[in-house]
Amino acid sequence: MRTWQRGATNAGYALYALYALYAIAGAMAQKMGTTLPVRLGDVGEFCLFFAATVLFVAGLIQEDSETQSSGWLAALNENAERYAMLVFYVFICIVIVQEVLRRFVLNYSSAWAQETAQYAFIYLGYVGAAFAVKERAHIRFDILLQRLPARMHGWVYLFAEICTLVFAIIATYWCLHTIEQLWNFGGTTPVLRVNKIWAEAALPIGFTLMIVRCLQMMWRDIADIRAGRPAYIGKSMFEE
Fold first, then answer.
1. What is the C-alpha separation between 138 and 115, in angstroms, rounded?
2. Residue 213: DSSP 8-state
3. CB-side exposure of 234: number of CA atoms within 13 Å?
4. Which SS3 state, helix, strand or coil, does residue 215 take?
5. Side-chain half-sphere of 177: how many Cα atoms within 13 Å?
6. Among the listed residues 119, 96, 89, the one whose alpha carbon sits nearest the alpha carbon of residue 192
7. pTM exceeding the 0.70 threshold for the entire prediction
8. Are 175 and 207 in contact (CB under 8 A)?
9. Average of pLDDT values for 106-110?
């Protein structure tokens, strides 16, 4: 493991430990009828926990030989959605587990865990949709495609990408309209009391990533058609 990966993992563990100590101290203070001298609040607890998750996941990321030779930009282009999905997925799993422990072991539950887990799940879904566009992993009906000659497959995929691109552009426009309204008129989340833009941003981010991936796939399809190569079909459902 590289030095920076080991350092990120250790830093993540340290922040998790700090959060655990803070939760235990808060539970003890509650039972004793006192208050902690330093209180992070819901936003502070979330930021501490999320930072620990990001560092922990960063330590888990292992770069293969191809990524090391091609550079970090190529790695980001290849795995940006995967990295983000891993962060959100790990955060959801760990935050739910810790909330169960806080509630049934310490009898000192947090208010922010459920809300942030819900928003992380939304981000996970929309970022995952962009990744599925890149891998052509969305559910599709290929009965008609199988009946067409192989030389036509690239054109069918290109048409599908154009339709997806148009949909993503329209969806992004209306998502940004919602973001603009929240920016102008406000509106906060129920627990963290932060602007809902942070939650609603999952949609324009996801659709923007879909636009980028659609353009990349269209470029690949055009190159394959011109070169006479078979169209990239992606992964089938349940394929490893």
1. 28
2. H
3. 20
4. helix
5. 6
6. 119
7. yes
8. yes
9. 86
